[in-house]
Structures are given as C-alpha cells and as structure tokens.
Amino acid sequence: MKNNIIAIIAISFIIVGSLWGIGNIVSQDNTLSSKNEGIIMLMKDNKFNVTNPDITVKINQPLKISIANQDFRKHDFIVDDLNINTGFISSGQDFTTLIASDKAGYYRYYCSIHPGIMEGKIIVTD
Ligand SMILES: [Cu+2]
Question: Which domain does 112 fall in, by range?
C-alpha cells in the first residue's frame, strides 16, 4: 500500500516533469506541433510561451494542450471556430483540453482580456 502511493507520486513527478520539459523545448522555436504527445502553453507577462507561437495540428489528430497561468492576473484561452474556451484561469491554475479539427485552415487563439498582445494562430494541416 505504502509502496503504491510512493510509486504513484514518483510517476506523477515524471509526467509533470516531462510535460514541463516539452513546454520549455517548444518555447524556444516559434512553433508547436502535434509531433509531441502534448504541448504546454504558459501564460506569463501577458504572452503565451513568450512568443505567442503558431500551433500546428494535423487534421483529425487531436492535440492535447495544457494551458498554465504563471502570471499574477487571470487569463483565458479561446478559439472561437474550434469551440475552445477555457474560461478564466487564475494565477497558478491550469486547464487541459484538446485542439481538434476535421477542417484544414487557420484559426485564431487569443485571451479575451488581452486580445492583440495575447494571440496567435493554430494551423490545421492535411
Ligand atoms: Cu490575458
């Protein structure tokens, strides 16, 4: 029983650690893509992942996305045409959802409180 709990805690650390690792890697270039198992968007200083990167998703291949707020103010993440709306995410909280589309094209993501400075595009490709 005690060993199981320790194992679960250890696995949780590994999963969280690898997700944060992915977030760090993808923030360095300016694109995110569904090659990874999932992506992380960090809300910080009124930006998504510093550069509001393009997110590339394959058609009919949902991409898991975790959006974490590291700012001291609330933000949200909205993609009108893909029916994504996280609602307000408070400081320190996060929200996980899927980006999925059966139609290729460009889709705008944005924060409704900071449109213009917190926005970018999702590219759905064949
Ligand atoms: Cu915002």
Answer: 2-125
CB-based neighbours (< 5 A) of ligand 1, an ion: 75, 111, 113-114, 118
Q: What is the pLDDT along the chain (126 residues), one digit of tens a residue?
A: 566 655 544 545 444 445 455 544 444 455 665 555 799 999 999 999 999 999 999 999 999 999 999 999 999 999 999 999 999 999 999 999 999 999 999 999 999 999 999 999 999 999
C-alpha of residue 42 to centroid of ligand 1, in Å: 11
59 three-state secondary structure: coil
Rounded CA gap, 104 and 115, in Å?
24
- Distance, CA 98 to ligand 1 centroid (Å)? 20
Whether residue 39 contacts residue 32, with contact meaning beta carbons closer than 8 Å, is answered with yes
State the CATH number of the domain containing residue 94. Answer: 2.60.40.420
Q: How far apart are CA 41 and CA 22, in angstroms?
A: 10
- The predicted model scores a pTM of 0.73
